[in-house]
């Protein structure tokens, strides 16, 4: 007779070992003999989109639209409503010196009647602030309307961050199209852009900002840039200076008449543009009579720019030298004639107190 074997139930530890073994070698189906095609079909069914064809087409269209929208925002092709108070009007030094009062009143009336049709251009500065690139007149008109109870927002295209030189180019381009700048304003903005560090020099600023202008026009702009550098702190009616007289004045400055012209303007200033030119013209005629005056664009060839130094507070000094002499030209953006005189007096006192500094050639 066979001996009976005693059976014992597995304890918890043994059951845990069984579970671990099953986990290592999972069973694919009940029989463990499923065909490869069945496995492929099952995986395809799990990965497939259960939605219908129309739903899938709609989702693809929405995804494409979202991508196009993101690209439009990144490329600055979307008009947004932003608060007027969030726009910094002086983010870029403006090219236009004075605004035409009558033209601005007409713009206010047009916006009051028809609303804003054309957006301004701004760049995002972060923390909800924006820097104005173009559209200063529209901003000024909308601010006036807001003070009368109008809307507190402005339609704007938010551009991606731009290089400083590109900002000046964008601003000038709009003003040249909508309300042409005067010859002096073109030269002035080139000097200002260089002083702000957007370009290495005013000549480079002319080439960059007015890149689409003809060579002859850029030459004239350089002449008015020279006028602003030499006489900008003394001229009261520079925007009234005609192109012809401006070129004559630039020629006189190149011939060395600058000190004489400055002395005339410091002694007396006219009440209008005609009187101001009457003070300047004798010195211009004197330079022309000597045959030294030049109407060609650019700066005097005898002294080549050598170095530009920052003196703090936005003041820069341009150091240049030739075989005959050296020159130091100070650029004081936004300063008055009195401030320039005070600096000149300080320099004079420095020279008096340290004469030995200039004994060595």
TrEMBL record:
It comes from Profundibacterium mesophilum KAUST100406-0324. GO terms for biological process: chromosome segregation. Pfam families: ParB_N. Transmembrane segments: none annotated. Residues 80-176 form the ParB-like N-terminal domain. Residues 286-306 are annotated as: Disordered. It comes from the Bacteria. This is ParB-like nuclease. One of its GO terms (cellular component) is chromosome.
């Amino acid at each position: 007779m066979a001996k009976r074997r005693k059976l014992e139930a597995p304890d918890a530890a043994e059951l845990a070992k069984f579970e671990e073994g099953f986990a290592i070698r999972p069973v694919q189906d009940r029989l463990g003999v499923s065909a490869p095609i069945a496995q492929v079909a099952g995986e395809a069914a799990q990965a497939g989109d259960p939605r219908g064809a129309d739903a899938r087409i709609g989702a693809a269209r929405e995804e494409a639209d979202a991508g196009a929208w993101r690209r439009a925002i990144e490329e600055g092709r979307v008009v947004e409503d932003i608060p007027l108070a969030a726009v910094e009007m002086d983010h870029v030094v403006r090219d236009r010196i004075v605004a035409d009062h009558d033209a601005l009143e007409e713009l206010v009336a047009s916006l009051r009647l028809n609303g804003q049709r054309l957006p301004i251009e701004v760049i995002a500065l972060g923390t909800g602030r924006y820097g104005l690139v173009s559209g200063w007149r529209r901003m000024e008109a909308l601010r006036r309307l807001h003070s009368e109870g109008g809307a507190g927002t402005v339609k704007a295209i938010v551009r991606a961050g731009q290089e400083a030189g590109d900002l000046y180019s964008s601003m000038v381009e709009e003003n040249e199209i909508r309300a042409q700048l005067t010859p002096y304003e073109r030269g002035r903005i080139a000097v200002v852009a260089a002083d702000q560090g957007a370009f290495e020099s005013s000549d480079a600023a002319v080439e960059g900002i007015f890149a689409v202008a003809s060579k002859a026009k850029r030459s004239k702009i350089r002449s008015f840039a020279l006028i602003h550098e030499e006489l900008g702190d003394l001229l009261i009616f520079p925007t009234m200076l005609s192109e012809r007289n401006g070129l004559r004045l630039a020629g006189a400055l190149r011939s060395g008449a600058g000190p004489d012209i400055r002395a005339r303007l410091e002694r007396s200033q006219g009440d209008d543009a005609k009187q101001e030119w009457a003070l300047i013209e004798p010195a211009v005629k004197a330079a022309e009579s000597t045959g030294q005056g030049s109407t060609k664009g650019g700066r005097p060839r005898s002294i080549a720019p050598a170095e530009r130094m920052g003196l703090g507070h936005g003041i820069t000094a341009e150091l240049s030298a030739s075989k005959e002499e050296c020159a130091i030209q100070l650029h004081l953006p936004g300063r008055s004639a009195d401030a320039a005189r005070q600096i000149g007096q300080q320099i004079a006192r420095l020279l008096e107190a340290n004469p030995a500094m200039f004994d060595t050639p």
